[in-house]
């Protein structure tokens, strides 16, 4: 029964056994419930935290001390999580906790890339339809907040010159968009903003 997992976890915390049995999480039907029970016991009974506190406070050091690395491998981290991030373990334990909206998550990642907290975007971050949405959010932020464009119709003038376009994308860490998603800056702009595909706008560039 899944409820017995807590007794086994207590023995691990007490040093009576080193790890869970290799067969403990084999049954996919109960795996999630077992992992949640272990996490909730650690958070509520050992740390005496609320779920909200835990999401804010839990660190990689806590995970090691609480032996939660033994269940961490059964939780798929979100694409934006860095290796040392563990907040998503709390979200796994408490699915009802409100989550950060997708746009906010994308801007959090992008701002960490800009600040050098991350050396680069997560692998495959701009792949698939969701990746294209992330690309648009980042590029839109660059245009409105970093370059301070008043009107998106200025984009053909700025991105009509290839070298200038690449220089700008490199400066704001978004050259990866053209490298992985689009054939050229022109292709990127006209895909993101179809209203700017008018050849006359680019002839004036």
From TrEMBL:
This is DUF4046 domain-containing protein. Pfam families: DUF4046. Residues 106-196 form the DUF4046 domain. It comes from the Bacteria.
């Amino acid at each position: 029964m899944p409820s017995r997992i807590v007794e086994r976890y207590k023995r691990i915390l007490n040093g009576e056994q080193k790890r869970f049995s290799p067969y403990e999480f084999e049954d996919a039907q109960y795996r999630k419930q077992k992992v949640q029970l272990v996490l909730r016991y650690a958070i509520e009974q050992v740390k005496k935290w609320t779920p909200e506190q835990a999401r804010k406070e839990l660190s990689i050091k806590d995970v090691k001390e609480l032996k939660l690395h033994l269940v961490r491998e059964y939780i798929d981290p979100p694409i934006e999580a860095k290796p040392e991030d563990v907040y998503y373990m709390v979200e796994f334990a408490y699915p009802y906790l409100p989550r950060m909206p997708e746009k906010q998550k994308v801007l959090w990642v992008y701002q960490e890339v800009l600040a050098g907290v991350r050396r680069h975007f997560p692998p495959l971050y701009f792949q698939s339809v969701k990746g294209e949405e992330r690309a648009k959010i980042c590029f839109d932020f660059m245009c409105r907040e970093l370059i301070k464009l008043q009107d998106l119709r200025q984009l053909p003038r700025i991105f009509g010159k290839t070298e200038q376009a690449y220089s700008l994308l490199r400066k704001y860490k978004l050259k990866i968009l053209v490298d992985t998603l689009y054939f050229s800056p022109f292709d990127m702009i006209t895909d993101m903003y179809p209203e700017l595909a008018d050849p006359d706008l680019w002839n004036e560039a």
